[in-house]
Design goal:
Length: about 325
């Protein structure tokens, strides 16, 4: 009986909450708000916040076309694997409490690995499509991945060294006792570096280089249409939530329940507020800066980004008593 309940619980967590359905709906809502806010920042009305839901429904009803020059199995499987990895990573992130749905030893390593799968899938999807625009975008993505990912890992390493663990639940528990890591001056450079790397991981301006519309149409996704493109859209929205949720757990204390007056605020509400604020921060950044070239992005990450992360790593190793 316990085995059956465990299986049902795992399926519910994977498919409904905090897995696929939850992250898809919240992701579409946040990206819809992002598009609306972007419109106002650019002195436009902007689309309605439910536009992502409408776009998803429309794409699911369109014809599914696989180019004759494409490597069919890879082209088709890429968006499915990307979405599956993001549903899996949500099981390892605290959403409704400090305890995630699935806890692993050194789960930060697994989370970093899973968050790279969508990028790898998009690269494979671009190369397998046979389109020159998609191949150019995939090549740019490889270079950008080599730039931001090392900064991302080095910044997280500084946080892990500070807390003394690679377990995300333990990092959240540490902040419950000692306060947010955001307030630790030794980690401020690493936190800034993490936010910069997250902007590149989410392909947001100024690092939307692999899918630059004015240069290479839609980059790796140029040949995608119909349901496959809808799945890619869902994957991007889910990745937005997953990255924001990781940042919330790393330096904003994770989801926390509060009591205001006689009303208890659930931890999932705190999670939604914090992730929303991080998404809005990326929205503001992408509207106040211009896209950079791929060589400029790589140079920026490998100089300024690594420098910030290395400063924090050295500080937490040399002056841990402060």
């Amino acid at each position: 009986m316990n085995t059956i309940l465990d299986i049902l619980s795992f399926l519910f967590n994977s498919i409904v909450f905090p897995g696929l359905l939850f992250v898809s709906v919240v992701g579409m809502l946040y990206v819809g708000i992002d598009r609306k806010v972007t419109g106002h920042l650019q002195h436009r009305i902007g689309p309605p916040i439910w536009q992502e839901f409408l776009d998803f429904g429309k794409l699911m009803t369109k014809e599914d076309i696989t180019p004759s020059a494409a490597i069919g199995p890879v082209f088709t499987a890429a968006p499915l694997f990307a979405l599956g990895s993001l549903a899996a990573v949500m099981l390892l992130l605290p959403v409704a409490s400090a305890q995630p749905a699935l806890r692993l030893t050194a789960d930060l390593i697994v989370i970093i690995y899973l968050l790279n799968i969508p990028a790898i899938c998009m690269i494979l999807g671009g190369y397998s499509s046979g389109s020159s625009f998609a191949i150019a975008g995939a090549g740019r993505y490889i270079v950008q991945l080599l730039g931001y990912e090392f900064v991302f890992i080095l910044s997280i390493a500084a946080i892990a060294v500070k807390v003394g663990t690679l377990n995300l639940t333990d990092i959240v528990s540490y902040q419950a006792k000692n306060g947010w890591l955001l307030l630790d001056w030794k980690l401020l450079p690493a936190i800034v570096a993490t936010l910069i790397a997250a902007q590149g991981k989410l392909l947001r301006t100024p690092f939307d280089i692999p899918e630059a519309e004015t240069e290479i149409v839609a980059g790796p996704l140029t040949e995608y249409s119909g349901p496959k493109l809808a799945i890619w859209r869902i994957s991007y929205n889910a990745e937005t939530i997953a990255v924001a949720a990781l940042l919330v757990s790393l330096f904003l204390g994770g989801p926390t329940a509060y009591t205001i007056g006689n009303v208890r605020i659930p931890a999932v509400v705190d999670f939604l507020i914090k992730t929303f604020l991080i998404v809005m921060l990326t929205t503001v950044v992408r509207n106040i800066v211009a896209r950079v070239r791929i060589d400029q992005a790589l140079k920026f990450y490998w100089t300024f980004g690594i420098l910030l992360a290395a400063i924090s790593l050295i500080l937490v190793m040399v002056v841990p008593q402060w």
